[in-house]
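Recap quiz, item 2
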Amino acid sequence: MKFGIVIFPGSNCDYDTLYVLKDVLKQRATFLWHKEHNLENVDCVILPGGFSYGDYLRSGAIAKFSPLMQEVKEFALKGGLVLGICNGFQVLLELGLLPGAMLRNKNLKFLCQHVWLRAENSKTPFTNKVEKGQVLKIPIAHYDGNYFAPPQTLEELKRNDQVVFRYCDAKGELSEEANVNGSVESIAGLMNKEGNVMGMMPHPERASESILGSKDGRYIFESVINYLKS
Amino acid sequence: MKVRILVSLKDIVLDPQGQTVKNALHTLGYDFVKDVRQGKVFELELEGVSRQQAEKKIVEISDKVLANPIIEKFSWQILE
């Protein structure tokens, strides 16, 4: 089992993700440079957080044209596991592998803080280690995390159980206050209809050891490991 | 050939930046400003294409790259 972490110019959570997979979870993991055309037979592609191309034009808008993203798209369409974290989520939206788009946070502030997330679907390759309704503590760090989708897309997302995480309070309750960036229906993470591509704004790689204030992020990586093992 | 392309958020999408600018204008006494929508301007210089080809390509570029059709709309004009 091997993980591949794509590096774009401006990625800045690439090393954190590699560290968690290799040093904390003892998995095989490698970097994939965005100019390459080779996925090196990885089993799961991770698009890490950061500011690819300085967020010029729109977050993730230029990264989607990187040569490697064509391979990632084909890999995803064949059923390969792809996880987009923060900027990686934005790239997946721009690429059209996930529906919807990101707007600027409702309060126009860059938000860097721990948030609570409610797992809405535990039958996915990315969340099979959590219970439905379980509340996780994972940090966010973004300016453009205000998820938007037109009404018919939202209906489809809900009908197919594609919403994976929602922003909530410590008790798992939804509220306008807990929905820090203003995302439609408090959506913090979602997957495609087939369930092999997931994007989430919070950073699980920044919450995988107790010393960092939470290790709930491990559930995400451990779920993928569990899924690939079986 | 010079082209100016305007990209802005669709009307169904909330524009918090435009709202903030509107509030600032109201604070300064410009109460007659009813609404503000903020957008982006791109100026492209083209060569080696006919006007007819350019019109087609401008729409293609705007739709594929400059605007995100889920949240944004665009308009354009050929300047010279």
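Chain A has one domain: 2-229.
The two ends of chain A are 11 Å apart (CA to CA).
End of item.
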